[in-house]
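Q: How would the structure tokens look for this protein?
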Amino acid sequence: MSEKYSNFKKWLDKEQFLLIIGKYDQILGPTSLYSSIDIKDEDFIRDLLRDSLNTTNKYVYLDYKKFYSQVCKIEVEDASARGGKQSYALIFLRDAELPVISTFIFQQIEELFRKIGTKRILTDDNAAFLDFFVKIHSMFMNKEYLVPLESFNVKIRGEVNTILGFCDLIIEQKTEISEGDFLNYIKMMRESAKEIENVLNNMFSPEGMK
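A: Here is the predicted structure in token form.
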């Protein structure tokens, strides 16, 4: 697997992820439709698609030691397919040092994929898949949705610690606490809670992703 990593490394050094779009063709089996780079190892692609699609889980994580893949599986209505649905897999290859993509982010990615439109998806429109990749890159990569959220974590932890601190004070003082102090503690805890709410709204609101 180290040889495969060497092939990907020059790309993973430049990008936060490599994208492969595949589907389970009822005649051909797991089939690659689009890749953000030219991956010449057909055996690896075939095995990756097989492992990604041959499971009932919607989200799949595959560990290759120096890199890993995360998969979001999407079913698209298709009257001509067995069961009336066609299964697609959005496969993200990432360096092992990078954090995993959250379920929330995958939900946003799936929404973008569905906006391609059923007809274009079912016709394996490569131009549409390329446009989809470009949108993911610009909307998520440029806004650092897929990179470590140190500043986000620090802000949240700081406000949570404030709330916990005032809770501890109230518990320790019990009946000794005055009504005025109690109300002040409640107000400060509320302010911290509002700060957390603001951080979450700014980070994850649909407006913030436009």
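Residues 179-204 form the longest helix (26 residues).

The chain has two domains: 2-141, 150-209.

Upvote if useful.
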